[in-house]
Amino acid sequence: MRFGHDVTVFASGDSRVSGRLIPVSPQAIRHYPSPKRHLSEGLTFLAIEKAFSMESSFDLLHVHAGFVAFPMMRRSPLPSVATVYGSLDAPEILQLFRAFRELPLVATSAEQIRQCPELNWLALIPVPGPRQRSEVPAETMDSLVETATAYTAVYESIVERAVRPTHAVRPAYSLYDVQTTV
């Protein structure tokens, strides 16, 4: 990988990734016929189970699947971090996140941090928009490199401290030190 990390991605078999791909389904969820109820959660469980079965191969588990993975992250033998997407404005969602407040998280918007500041936020790393993903002009590539660099700082902090999900992460840098302007 570009930043010197050996990355294994657990995703659909039709995914295009730079690292090693371990498929958890033949195709992306959007290609499955309806109804798709619980398909995402089921595939998340399968991906995490596969990762746990290979645990000695990994230094860190980075979850993009939302709170469905939180109970497994809490019990994981691997250090882990979850990137949070979407709003935390529903009372039930806030209750759920607060029940797992010790888990290390990466926010994708400042609003998430304002909605629930007591969570264990490690960084604020905005997600590049669709235009940025498809066209990649030079300034966007710089932003994507900044985003990757910010995630690298988060990863190295977690792995260096051998943080287990049952302990709060205390990063060596402030939340806004790794904020990017995408």
Describe the structure.
The chain is an alpha/beta fold. It has 2 domains: 58 residues, no CATH class; 122 residues, no CATH class. It is built from 6 helices and 6 strands; from the N terminus they run E-E-H-E-H-E-H-E-H-E-H-H. The chain has a 4-stranded parallel sheet. A two-stranded parallel sheet has the order 1-2. Helix 2 links the parallel strand 3 and strand 4. The C terminus is likely disordered.
The end-to-end span amounts to 21 Å
How large is the count of helical segments? 6
Mean pLDDT: 75
Q: What's the Cα radius of gyration?
A: 16 Å
Strand content: 5-15%
Shape: globular
**Elements, N to C (H/E):** EEHEHEHEHEHH
Low-confidence stretches: 163-182
Task: Kindly report the spatial arrangement of strands forming the biggest sheet.
Answer: 3-4-5-6
Strand tally is 6
Question: Helices and strands: which structural class?
Answer: alpha/beta
Instruction: Please give the domain count.
Output: 2
